[in-house]
């Protein structure tokens, strides 16, 4: 029962009780006012007076009669005494209660009754003397009876007046209550009427809702199946008929599991229903959309998407399933998956093809360009030199095309990374111009370079990528210009720390239509001659160049007009590096490098390709060095374990053992080449192997074809490294460590070194427990902390070792990570004696001083 209904029934019950009480009170008052009451007090009092008078007359008559009639006397006496008794009880007692005069008169009546009763009840005969005594008592009582009658009349009148007043009050109060009840009943009738109207409206709404729901269920595009707690179907809409093939009449009353649930799922359905009805713990109910298998009338099993809800009906619960046949959707999804897989396989095949072709093209190109470089060392004639220049320039352009083929796959996959390093912009642009000048001369074009003097300084940036873009721009200028010139201008805007370099390449070619200015930056777009360009070209150069420029934070734009030529402008932000300190003579260091580079070095070349190995051997012999060859990584490792070399040139991809594994084993071992400078070579792209090569311990990483000039630069770097890694140098930056000694003194510095060594060993122990595939962030945090302390002590060799660990961690290479950890521990063992020797010398110096 609802609280509102209970409240209404309680109020009605209270009103009924109140009406009953009021009715009883009114009836009581009416009865009290009735004059026909046998117990009327005034009549009773008058009866007392009358009977006392009758008794007095009887006694007077019998007093003179001889003999007296005693029976008559007794009868009249009993009547009088009974009347006195009536006054003492009933309403008479109520009337006289509380009145002192009445109580005195009643006491006289009581005394009289006692005395007369004693005479009557004595058993002695009533003689004249007894009657005379009774007559005397009666005469004496007569005045009291008269007074009592008068007093009774007065009190009765007063009581009647009070009762009338009380009745008036009672009647007035009853009237007021009645009016209030009428008002309340009126309000309640109004409320009941409104509730009834509302109930009727709700019934109408419910009926309309039921009709709409029935229409919705019937018209729903989704199948709707309703079942009770016993699993019996109680409703089955038209859409469900279309899905399952059953008619509604064929389904009503039947169990779900017998009609639409596949046999292998029926036991699970029964268990799930039983568990829910016991625990009310839903697993599928209200769980949102789920996919299951269902059964058609034909016995065909098919996938459905359904959502199950519940609703209360009486004491039970109904389960409502909304179903949708997703067979077509599944077929389409599988078709899309198959198409995606084919596209991914095609993309992987494309990338693999490009990578393989790049490798296969670089290998012969390495031999071609290497031989061309060697031919230049044979003092060719001027005509032959010109031919060599053209062939070399063409080879450089071919190499750029190979690089573009790889770059487009890297850009598309987001795998392209920049390699910021110190470079001289003037030298980079100048080198590109000199390489391509022979091609311009073949077409009798002027190729001019104009560089603002304030741009001739060292910068931090990816000089290789900048050179790639400029090569493409100059090459296009030469390719698409038949008469006139190609001019390269280098300028820039210098900020507080950065310089925005502006490199423009202008040609006097046919120009480009304004509507096609943006088209040329799309992939694989090469404009026809009628559109202002020649039809040659793969359409990748400008697209890749702009993408690389934007990756560096710059941009590549074009200005052109048909018949007036074109101007391509590359803008890129570069970080300026500190200039050489005043008083230093950089030429001295360069002379020293050049002089050391001329010294004969023992070099191990590990290369599986015979042509490349032959070209490298001839280049190095031509430069005056001794060369030992190995055809794979295992043979090279065996030679490196037996003989010390000044330089090892290691190919990355080789049979039996690749260059990365061979380098790792050399660094991890105790052989004579543990610290030897190792240069890695690959015909693949630089980005694919850089992290792994550095993690393995390679000092440099070069992409084939390796040129004679590049090889000379590598040898100059090796010479510098050999000077810096003499005993007690290279491992330690003595200027940094010296400053620390000066600030702390030998004793405090030794404590700091000991504390650092303990921390290093503890960190290495913890790092061995971590995996770069699972704890990359934690490893980076630990290495960052360790690197800071290492830099503070000036332990440059250990800093490089830490950087190798971080490179392996970043690339997710567990083997390289473990190898770099071992290498760092070994380097620390090498550094500790040098630190101890420096501290010992310093303490001895302080003691002797």
Describe this structure in words.
The chain is an alpha/beta fold and 849 residues long. The protein has 5 domains: 3-194; 220-325, Beta-Lactamase; 418-576, Histidine kinase-like ATPase, C-terminal domain (Heat Shock Protein 90), CATH 3.30.565.10; 591-722, Response regulator (Rossmann fold), CATH 3.40.50; 734-848, Four Helix Bundle (Hemerythrin (Met), subunit A). The protein is built from 25 helices and 17 strands. The strands form 3 sheets. Strands 6, 7, 8, 9, 10, 11 and 12 form a 7-stranded mixed sheet that branches. A hairpin with a 5-residue loop joins β3 (290-295) and β4. α2 (41-63) runs antiparallel to α6. The longest helix has 92 residues, at 128-219.
Keywords:
25 helices, 62% helix, Heat Shock Protein 90, 849 residues, alpha/beta, Beta-Lactamase, 7-stranded mixed beta sheet, single chain, 5 domains, 5-stranded antiparallel beta sheet
Topology:
Elements: H1 3-33, H2 41-63, H3 70-88, H4 90-96, H5 100-120, H6 128-219, E1 223-227, E2 233-236, H7 238-244, H8 248-251, H9 256-259, H10 263-279, E3 290-295, E4 301-313, E5 316-325, H11 327-376, H12 382-413, E6 421-424, H13 425-442, E7 446-451, E8 458-461, H14 463-479, E9 485-494, E10 498-507, H15 541-551, E11 555-561, E12 565-576, H16 586-598, E13 602-606, H17 610-622, E14 626-630, H18 633-642, E15 647-651, H19 659-668, E16 677-682, H20 686-696, E17 700-703, H21 708-724, H22 734-768, H23 776-793, H24 796-810, H25 814-848
Parallel strand pairs: 7-9, 13-14, 13-15, 15-16, 16-17
Antiparallel strand pairs: 1-2, 1-5, 3-4, 4-5, 6-8, 8-12, 9-10, 10-12, 11-12
